[in-house]
Amino acid sequence: MRPGLRADAVAGEIELPTGTPARPLESDLVAALMRRHEVAAERLIGWLRVAIGLCVFVTVIVADHVMLRWTGVSLDLFMRNAWIAALGFLSVGAVSIGLAVPQRWRHGYSYLFMVLDVGLVLVIAYLALAERGLPGNALPSAPITWSVPVVLAVGALRYDVKVQLGAIALLALGLVGIAGALDHSLMLDPASQNVPAWPGLFSMPVNVMRFALLLLAGAATAFGIVRSRRLLSSAVKDAVGRASLARFLPAEIAPRVAAGDLGLRRGRRQRAVIVFVDIRDSTGMAEGMDPERLSQFFTAFRTRILGCVRKHHGIVDKFIGDGALILFGVPDEGSDDAGRALTFAHDLVRIVEAWNATHEMPHPVRIGIGIHVGEVFCGIVGDEERMEFTVLGDAVNVASRLEQATKRYGAMILASGAAVEGTPERAAWREIGREPFAGRRELVTIFAPAEGGPG
User: Long-range contacts for 2-6 (Cβ within 8 Å, ≥24 apart)?
Assistant: First the structure.
């Protein structure tokens, strides 16, 4: 481990770059998602227009020929409007499909096609009444009027509340304008109707109720758009937060933090087993080694550490240069934490020896491992834009000093008496010294694997 990193490693305060701040990233992701959705939605709406046009053609124009042939009744009063509707929706749909590609699409096209859809409905509704001399009260009887909920529902696919509110306002003004232009009366005179029971169904109060229901339907779609966008924004924020945590926090810690574990967020005191691992003479190994090859070496070394740590249910707090800080008993303490840490150390030595036997590296890889148990403060430090998990305390310092002492004692593994005593592995360890370590008064009992042991 390089000396320049030692102080930070002991304190457990290695600061990790987190890159782009969370909030701008979330906004950019939402904007990008909505951009892709807008183009895809408009393409879908275009195909729905084509489907509506074909539906009008089949149900009215084709049906007219069938009825004329079998019953002698013609729908000629509806034919012109049916052709306008069919050709109008087919034309607008074809144009929108052609423009709904990322290279051509502009946001303003959403407003243009919304106006065309609403305008087509209003024009046909006006013609359906005007050409028959019907008053504005009869507006609900025009079949095209009941395409309004369809237009609003299809428009909601855009997830653009401004366009949807524009459609609602334009439809409302248009329907009121048609009713007023065609002399909408408060009450119809039953004596002037062939069917006396019908006029009441088209009087002002009933039509106002119908109009209000259409507005409520439009408001519901607008509310649905707003809610969907909020849910999307919240989901993206949550995904970005989890991805950031998973990238810069230990994999075993990130889910707990994401779930709102206040103990880890605020930090807490607990007993933990601290293990430091370091490569011996990494500077000499790196000398003359191609930078790419050196990167591959460190990747291979860290991969072996990660595999061994997971096998023994520990966590890698962080990799520091050519070494690693490993924890057992975090975030949840266990009665076998120290035993698992000692077994991990022996296992890692065997893994490195097997690696050396492959002669993959030009020089044998040698490591030093220091193990200690004690009370630490562990938790998340920093804010949402720059955070890390860290452990602090004297136990971290002692584990680091033990790892450094492996050079003086000529051992690959050194552990404190606190880590060895009381574990099932105690018989495989021997005491080799006691010293206070730099800056400390209390003596630390130092153990190494017994002769012939796996370490």
Answer: 2/282, 2/283, 2/321, 2/322, 5/320, 5/321, 5/323, 6/400
* Cβ 156 vs Cβ 219: under 8 Å: no
Domain boundaries, the chain: 22-245, 255-449
- Ranges of residues in the chain with a pLDDT under 70 are 1-30, 61-78, 185-203, 239-265, 284, 286, 288, 382-387, 451-455
Position 112 scores a pLDDT of 93
The residues near 428 (Cβ < 8 Å, ≥ 6 apart) are 449, 450, 453, 454
- Taking phi first (over 0 means left), then psi (-120 to 50 degrees means alpha), and beta for anything else, what does residue 43 get? alpha
Residue type, 159: Y
CB-CB contact of 366 with 281 (8 Å) = yes
Measure the CA–CA gap between 83 and 61, rounded to whole angstroms.
Answer: 8
The CA distance from 451 to 110, in Å, is 79
- Give the CATH class of 255-449: alpha beta
For 180-219, how does the pLDDT look when each residue is reduced to its tens digit (9 = 90+)? 888 776 555 555 545 445 555 666 777 787 888 888 888 8
Predicted pLDDT of residue 372: 94
Q: Tell me which residue of 7, 6, 11 sits closest to 396, measured CA to CA.
A: 11
Q: How far apart are CA 28 and CA 19, in angstroms?
A: 14
Q: Which residues contact 179 (CB under 8 A, 6 or more apart)?
A: 136, 137, 139, 207
pLDDT score of 92: 93
Beta strands in 308-366 (DSSP E): 315-320, 323-328
Q: Give residues with Cβ within 8 angstroms of 296, minimum separation 6.
A: none
3-state secondary structure 128-152: HHHCCCCCHHHHHHCHHHHHHHHHH
Asked if 248 and 388 count as a contact pair (C-beta separation under 8 A), the reply is: yes
Written as six digits, the tokens of 395 are 């136990």
Token pair for 263: 């103990």
Q: Which two tokens stand for residue 197?
A: 């029971």
